[in-house]
Design goal:
The complex is a heterodimer of chains A (103) and B (167). Helices cover 75% and strands 0% of the residues of chain A. Chain A is mainly α and 103 residues long. Chain A has one domain: Helix Hairpins, CATH 1.10.287.3510. Chain A is elongated, with a radius of gyration of 17 Å. With 167 residues, chain B is mostly helical. Chain B folds into two domains: 81 residues, Four Helix Bundle (Hemerythrin (Met), subunit A); 43 residues. Chain B has six helices and no strands. Classes of the chains: A mainly alpha (103), B mainly alpha (167). At the A-B interface, helix 1, helix 2 and helix 3 of A face helix 1, helix 2, helix 3, helix 4 and helix 5 of B.
Chain lengths: 103, 167
């Protein structure tokens, strides 16, 4: 078996990204769509940290990963508030059935 | 096969298998708990990459914060006592085809690109250097992120409020 290098981490992150996109595309429930988005953000983060380790960029990659984590936290809070409002209005959170802006 | 490789494959398999379960599980609550395993595996990969501070932040923010938020979302928006927790998928076949093409393209690109691999000389513990960068080179982004978080939290709280106060 080859020694673990940059490519291994990139492949893991590619697979993670694809699964996240699959979740976003196929899921009906808005919360599960959010989980897919979190998977994709994590995949991007692995890339940042991996290039920070195997390149000559110092710690800039790790800092970008930290910024992404902060943005993901803000995004999750806002998205959850929106989902709660959708649930109050429609009584469900199926993204394929929500086609009105108001009742 | 060195111990480093062994641990890498352990965490990689944990991450990928649980990510697959997240997107394919029928039960929303179960998906959320598989997501916990995924975040944990990714955090292990960060440790292998020498990013100790990012790994701890991943555990604290993702598992301690975002996952709890998502679980609250699941509990508040689906009727748990009801037998059929609302699930369901759409467009499975086209999605699988599209994802297969994307995954093949990504992986072949990762293998065929000649990456300039050189192990960076990272400090033994990264938190000191990260903190120094945050208040020198990245101070503007740091402040902006603080304001963004404040606005996001106020906005989320006011949006999710149960009763609208009439003026």
């Amino acid at each position: 078996m080859v020694e673990v290098g940059l490519t291994h981490f990139l492949v893991v992150s590619s697979i993670l990204f694809s699964f996240g996109l699959y979740g976003v595309l196929t899921r009906k429930n808005a919360i599960l769509v959010l989980m897919g988005i979190e998977l994709m953000l994590n995949a991007a983060n692995i890339n940042f940290v991996a290039f920070s380790r195997y390149g000559n960029f110092g710690l800039n990659g790790q800092l970008m990963a930290l910024f992404v984590i902060v943005l993901a936290a803000a995004e999750a809070a806002i998205a959850l508030a929106i989902v709660l409002n959708i649930y109050k209005t429609f009584g469900h959170v199926n993204v394929d059935e929500i086609d009105n802006l108001k009742e | 096969m060195s111990i480093y490789d062994f641990i890498f494959y352990l965490f990689a398999i944990l991450t990928i298998v649980s990510a697959l379960m997240v997107v394919s599980s029928d039960n929303i609550v179960r998906s959320a708990f598989y997501l916990l395993a995924t975040f944990f595996g990714v955090s292990g990969l960060y440790v292998l990459l020498g990013a100790d501070f990012v790994a701890v932040t991943q555990i604290m923010v993702y598992i301690g914060g975002i996952l709890i938020l998502l679980l609250f979302g699941v509990m508040l928006t689906s009727n748990i006592t009801h037998v059929e927790i609302k699930k369901g998928m759409k467009n499975i076949v086209p999605a699988i085809i599209a994802i297969g093409v994307l995954l093949g393209a990504l992986i072949s690109m990762m293998f065929n690109t000649k990456w300039k691999e050189q192990l960076a000389e990272l400090p033994q513990t990264t938190s000191y250097e990260l903190g120094r960068l945050l208040i020198t080179d990245y101070v503007l982004i740091f402040e902006l992120l603080g304001i963004l978080l404040l606005i996001a939290l106020i906005g989320a709280a006011s949006m999710a409020r149960r009763d609208k106060v009439e003026d």
